[in-house]
């Protein structure tokens, strides 16, 4: 495929992207490449594998790279066909940090789900699914260490489908609760939400030293950090339930968590399919 500036036929140039974690980041990076003159069909950023693929001439790369690096993300060129695990996964301390995240997420996910049923809170149930989903996805990521790009894309596809099913489950359950409203027990809801916040902070601590590592390291760190913010939202919702004596703050937070599930699911599945086609 030819580039607008050189008209040369080129093989793909691939780079790992450090620091991206969502569809917004993908759009920002692709926009930066286009600002340097790369056509839309000559740049692809995968949210599933954190790899950018450019079809440009080699002598055009410095100009494009300058535009890419202005976004603040890191870009590490992949030499040859080695697009398997990121180098950071070789760090034993990072593996241990991921195992801690898996155990904490899966363990408290079960506890918080029980709390959701005891308190009648949809937001707690949705947050519990978030814990279980994160734990399962991180576990799958551990299994995928060292896999080829094709198998990592297949792993991402499974993650995306799993997140989508969780999101649809939360939406269905919350819609049923809208039609059969009952005010949650605010005290229990707040206690379990605070417990979730503490567990997420404990999960973040082992990842602190890795927050500026490769793309997947930083993604796990960002997911854990964002989960802590989400837990705080559930705590606020519990306070509003107690204040207004209404179930709506709980339901609104549950719908918000479901929306995040579905958006992440769509992005991961889209990129995984594109990687598999390629």
Automatic annotation (TrEMBL):
<feature type="transmembrane region" description="Helical">
    <location>
        <begin position="188"/>
        <end position="208"/>
    </location>
</feature>
<dbReference type="InterPro" id="IPR006121">
    <property type="entry name" value="HMA_dom"/>
</dbReference>
<feature type="transmembrane region" description="Helical">
    <location>
        <begin position="156"/>
        <end position="176"/>
    </location>
</feature>
<keyword id="KW-0406">Ion transport</keyword>
<keyword id="KW-0472">Membrane</keyword>
<feature type="domain" description="Cation efflux protein transmembrane">
    <location>
        <begin position="98"/>
        <end position="276"/>
    </location>
</feature>
<dbReference type="Pfam" id="PF01545">
    <property type="entry name" value="Cation_efflux"/>
</dbReference>
<dbReference type="InterPro" id="IPR002524">
    <property type="entry name" value="Cation_efflux"/>
</dbReference>
<keyword id="KW-0864">Zinc transport</keyword>
<dbReference type="GO" id="GO:0005385">
    <property type="term" value="F:zinc ion transmembrane transporter activity"/>
</dbReference>
<feature type="transmembrane region" description="Helical">
    <location>
        <begin position="131"/>
        <end position="149"/>
    </location>
</feature>
<dbReference type="InterPro" id="IPR036163">
    <property type="entry name" value="HMA_dom_sf"/>
</dbReference>
<feature type="transmembrane region" description="Helical">
    <location>
        <begin position="96"/>
        <end position="119"/>
    </location>
</feature>
<dbReference type="InterPro" id="IPR050681">
    <property type="entry name" value="CDF/SLC30A"/>
</dbReference>
<dbReference type="InterPro" id="IPR027469">
    <property type="entry name" value="Cation_efflux_TMD_sf"/>
</dbReference>
<keyword id="KW-0614">Plasmid</keyword>
<protein>
    <submittedName>
        <fullName>Cation transporter</fullName>
    </submittedName>
</protein>
<dbReference type="InterPro" id="IPR058533">
    <property type="entry name" value="Cation_efflux_TM"/>
</dbReference>
<dbReference type="GO" id="GO:0005886">
    <property type="term" value="C:plasma membrane"/>
</dbReference>
<feature type="transmembrane region" description="Helical">
    <location>
        <begin position="228"/>
        <end position="245"/>
    </location>
</feature>
<feature type="transmembrane region" description="Helical">
    <location>
        <begin position="251"/>
        <end position="269"/>
    </location>
</feature>
<keyword id="KW-0812">Transmembrane</keyword>
<keyword id="KW-1133">Transmembrane helix</keyword>
<dbReference type="GO" id="GO:0046872">
    <property type="term" value="F:metal ion binding"/>
</dbReference>
<keyword id="KW-0813">Transport</keyword>
<keyword id="KW-0862">Zinc</keyword>
């Amino acid at each position: 495929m030819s580039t607008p500036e050189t008209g040369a036929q080129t093989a793909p140039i691939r780079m790992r992207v450090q620091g991206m974690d969502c569809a917004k980041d993908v759009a920002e990076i692709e926009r930066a490449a286009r600002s340097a003159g790369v056509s839309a069909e000559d740049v692809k950023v995968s949210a599933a594998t954190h790899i950018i693929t450019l079809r440009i001439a080699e002598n055009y790369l410095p100009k494009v790279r300058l535009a890419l690096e202005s976004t603040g993300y890191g870009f590490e060129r992949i030499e040859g066909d080695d697009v398997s695990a990121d180098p950071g996964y070789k760090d034993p301390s990072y593996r241990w940090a991921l195992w801690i995240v898996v155990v904490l997420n899966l363990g408290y996910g079960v506890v918080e789900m029980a709390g959701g049923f005891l308190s009648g809170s949809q937001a707690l149930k949705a947050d519990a699914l978030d814990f279980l989903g994160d734990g399962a996805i991180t576990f799958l990521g551990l299994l995928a260490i060292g896999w080829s790009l094709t198998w990592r894309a297949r792993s991402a596809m499974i993650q995306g489908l799993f997140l989508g099913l969780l999101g649809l489950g939360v939406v269905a359950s919350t819609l049923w609760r809208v039609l059969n409203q009952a005010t949650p027990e605010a005290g229990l809801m707040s206690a379990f939400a605070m417990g979730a916040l503490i567990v997420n902070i404990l999960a973040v601590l082992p990842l602190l030293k890795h927050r500026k590592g490769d793309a997947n390291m930083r993604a796990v760190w960002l997911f854990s950090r964002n989960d802590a913010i989400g837990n705080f939202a559930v705590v606020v919702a519990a306070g509003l339930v107690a204040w207004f004596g209404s179930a709506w703050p709980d339901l609104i937070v549950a719908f918000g968590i479901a929306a995040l599930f579905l958006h992440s699911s769509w992005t991961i599945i889209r990129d995984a399919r594109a990687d598999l086609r390629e």
